[in-house]
Amino acid sequence: MCGGDIDANLEQTIGTCDSCGSTMTLPKVSDERIANLYNRANHYRQQNEFDKALATYENILAESNIEAEAHWGVVLSKFGIEYIEDPATHKRVPTCHRVQNESILVDLDYKAALANAINDQTKQQYIKEAMAIAEIQKSILEIANNESPYDVFICYKETDEKGERTKDSVIAQDIYFQLAEEGYKVFFSRITLEDKLGTEYEPYIFAALNSAKVMLVIGTAKEHFEAVWVKNEWNRFLALSRSDKKKLIIPCYRDINAYDLPDALSMFQSQDMSKIGFIQDLVRGIK
Fold first, then answer.
1. How many domains would you assign to the chain?
2. Which of 14, 37, 77, 151 would disulfide-bridge 53, Cβ 3.0–4.6 Å?
3. 3-state SS class at 24
4. Residue 114 belongs to what domain range?
5. pTM above the 0.85 mark?
6. Domain membership flag for residue 1
7. Residue pLDDT, tens place only, 140-185
């Protein structure tokens, strides 16, 4: 959960972290290649690279569809579960970065994890964790369902590696004010979430991703489009657009070549932000 060492012997399927004291389930594998896939998937998930983690767990399941821990890993990745420290108890508790409309308790991979759990102790641990996540999911959806719908979602990287504000953020804010003046309700995290704690972001992000018909993905560097939280947002919107054809993604770039856009975004009509009249063209495109 926190990256610490797990106190468990080779026969155990439940372990305790020697750093944070959290209890967690463990895969029981003898194949070194599968073990390496688990390590890779868990590393991705701890880095909040949920799509990469999900793909790696699915690679394990392609080899053996009865791997309960891989099914559980799919669930944690699908719901974007990160374990953070509770300042009161110093225990790791789940927080959800990719809430779904469908309850975790009816998720097919969760059911597969229960069905294939190696013993009752492991099964009970899955149930305990899922019940906690279900409560978090319920509270997130209650907040999200009370949010007014958005027209546009601006996706961008707020800070650089030094913690300083990016050029992307400045440009995104200019676009935000321009669209707001045109009468659009715009989700722009710097302003929309300014009075929220980081652990409280998800209900508002979820509501905006679901209601917005247009997403602007802003970037002035190739790596900014691939940044973990930026990619997390546009990937989620892209998934939603597959079932809602009215949703539109517009990549907006500057100081890079259009060919540097991620493959998943390159199929969409993009906008060069360095061109004169960019904002006017963008507003017209949204209309």
1. 2
2. 77
3. strand
4. 6-143
5. no
6. no
7. 999 999 999 999 999 999 999 999 999 999 999 999 999 999 999 9
